[in-house]
Write a structure and sequence with these properties.
- The chain has about 200 residues and is mainly α.
- About 70% of the residues lie in helices and about 0% in strands.
- It has helices spanning about 10-15, 25-45, 60-70, 70-85, 100-105, 110-130, 135-160, 170, 175-200, and strands at about 50, 55.
- It has a two-stranded antiparallel ribbon.
- Helix 2 (about 25-45) packs antiparallel against helix 3 (about 60-70), helix 3 crosses helix 4 (about 70-85) and helix 6 runs antiparallel to helix 7 (about 135-160).
Length: about 200
């Protein structure tokens, strides 16, 4: 039965518990996890996987998994760190530096999706803290919710930039649906499997 009440440890908290650590160690752990997560987002933005009908990146998958593994606070903070790196001009986004850098890139056609990353990571993290990452079907549902939260601001921003008379869904949604279904299925397998492996080690 799905729960929206009882809070549970996230995957990151279970693998690397804070226990009785000092404040400095807890802060160091948080910073390290956020930096590692932002580097993962950077890497996944740069790798395209051949797919039909368009090549896909694994970055949205990484966003959702980071949210579920880290929890909503650290997950959202990690996305904000990644966006801050991009805003400062680092070539962390897909298509950079060729398509521009910094705030100019973020204000372009992908800006809405980047904002959606924050919403998606926070939502998936919040659901993971309620145990939705322990079994395949709840994990898939959480990932689906996160995916929708990426697309909503992404499509709204495209409509604002280019006008609602343009084929916004054709540009920003339909070519990517099959790839997103694949990513949701992959997450529904990977996260519960990770929990089963941890349970065996206990």
């Amino acid at each position: 039965m799905l729960s929206l009440a009882a809070s549970k440890d996230t995957l990151a908290m279970t693998i690397w518990p804070v226990g009785g650590d000092s404040l400095a160690k807890r802060i160091g752990r948080t910073v390290l996890l956020a930096v590692v997560g932002s580097l993962l987002l950077w890497a996944t933005a740069k790798v395209q996987v051949p797919f039909y009908p368009v090549p896909m990146t694994m970055q949205p998958f990484a966003v959702l998994v980071i949210g579920m593994a880290y929890g909503w606070r650290l997950g959202a903070a990690t996305i904000l760190l990644y966006l801050a790196e991009g805003a400062m001009g680092l070539p962390v986004f897909a298509g950079t530096p060729e398509k521009g850098l910094g705030l100019a890139y973020m204000a372009g056609s992908t800006g809405g999706y980047l904002f959606g990353f924050i919403l998606a990571a926070a939502a998936c993290g919040w659901l993971a803290e309620r145990g939705w990452d322990r079994r395949a079907i709840p994990t898939a549902l959480a990932m689906l919710i996160g995916t929708v939260l990426i697309y909503i601001p992404g499509l709204i921003w495209l409509g604002i930039l280019f006008g609602w008379d343009k084929p916004i869904l054709t540009w920003g949604l339909t070519p990517f649906l099959l790839g997103d279904v694949t990513k949701v299925a992959l997450a529904a397998a990977v996260l519960p499997l990770s929990w089963r492996m941890i349970d065996r080690q206990r």
